[in-house]
Amino acid sequence: MHHVHGRFAPTPSGPLHAGSLVAAVASYLDARSQQGRWSLRIEDVDPPRCPPGSVDTILRQLETFGLAWDGEVRYQSHRHDAYARALARLTEQGMAYTCSCSRKQWRDYGIYPGWCRDGVCQPEAPQAWRLRSDLGQRPVIWHDRLQGLQRFDPAALGDVVLKRKDGLWAYQLAVVVDDIDQNITDVVRGADLLDNTPWQLQLLEALGAEPPRYLHLPLVIGQDGQKLSKQNLARPLPEDPRDVRRLLHATLALLGQSPDPAASEAPVAEQLEAACRRWRPRQIPRADIASQGLQVDGDDADTNE
C-alpha cells in the first residue's frame, strides 16, 4: 500500500473561518484514517496579502481544533530557488514563456490570447511568465474521488501565469512544486480549485511527477450566496472551548460523516478520533453547503481581525 501523505495549505491573508475548517478537517481525517502523514504548508507567496501575525493565528486555531500536523511547517516564501529551478525546466521544454501584455490589452477576450507565445510583444515592458496550456496533455482527464470523472481542455482555460511581473511566484507553479517535493499523495481541497487542476496536471507531467489523487470538497456558502472567504469578511473561528467543540461536531455533520449526536460536547481529540474510524469520503455531499449549519450559539463575533 502506498504511504498516504495529505496536506492543508492555507494562505495567511487572515484568520481561518468555517470554510477553511471544512477543508482542514476533511484533509486531516482523510490522511489520518489511512495512517498517513498530514502536513501544514503556509502559502505565503504573496507577502503584501499576508498581514503579520496571521500565521501565528492560523497555527493557534488549528491547535485549538485538535488538528496536529506532522513535521515542520513549510513556508512558500522560503522556496524561491525550487520554483526558479522548475521554471527553468519548463522553459527548456518550451512549456513556459515570457509575456509583456497587460490585462487591459486583452480585456475584450475571455482568456489571454497567447500573443507572446512566439516572442514578447513589448520587450521593454515588465514581463510575467506563462504556461503554454496548448502543449502537454489535452484534454486533461482525471477521476476526482468525490466529483467523479473530470475532463477539461487547459487551452480553453488559457495560459496561466507562473511568475508575476512583480517577480512574485504564482500559486499554480508553487503548489505543484511543493506537492512534488513533499511527496503529497492526496490533495483534499475546495471545489473552487477544481478548474485549476488541469493546469496543475500539465505541470506535474512536464516536471516528470506522478499526480496525487484529488478530492474537491463542496464550498461553504454564506448568507449572501458567495463562498465564505476572508474578502467577504467571514467570521474567524471561535476560541471559546464549548463553541469549538460544537463547531467541530457541526463540521463533521456537514461533511456527511454522521457523528454521534451526543458527541457535540465531547473534547475535540475524542471527536476527531471517532471521526477517523468512521471516515467515509463518499458520504461527503457534492453540492455547496450553507454556512448557517456551521453557526455556533456564541455571541455574534465581530469580523475585526
Automatic annotation (TrEMBL):
Glutamyl/glutaminyl-tRNA synthetase class Ib catalytic domain: residues covered: 4-107, 124-257
Annotated region (Disordered), positions in chain: 286-305
Binding-site residues, ATP: 230
Binding site for L-glutamate: 7-11, 43, 171, 189
Cofactor note: Binds 1 zinc ion per subunit.
Motif ('HIGH' region) on chain: 10-20
Annotated Zn(2+) binding sites: 99, 101, 112, 116
Pfam family, any one: tRNA-synt_1c
Enzyme Commission (EC) number: 6.1.1.-
Cofactors (names): Zn(2+)
Keywords, comma-separated and alphabetical: Aminoacyl-tRNA synthetase, ATP-binding, Ligase, Metal-binding, Nucleotide-binding, Protein biosynthesis, Zinc
SUPFAM superfamilies (UniProt xref): Nucleotidylyl transferase
DNA-binding in keyword set: no
Family: Belongs to the class-I aminoacyl-tRNA synthetase family. GluQ subfamily.
Its biological purpose: Catalyzes the tRNA-independent activation of glutamate in presence of ATP and the subsequent transfer of glutamate onto a tRNA(Asp). Glutamate is transferred on the 2-amino-5-(4,5-dihydroxy-2-cyclopenten-1-yl) moiety of the queuosine in the wobble position of the QUC anticodon.
Name of the featured protein: Glutamyl-Q tRNA(Asp) synthetase
Gene that produces this protein: gluQ
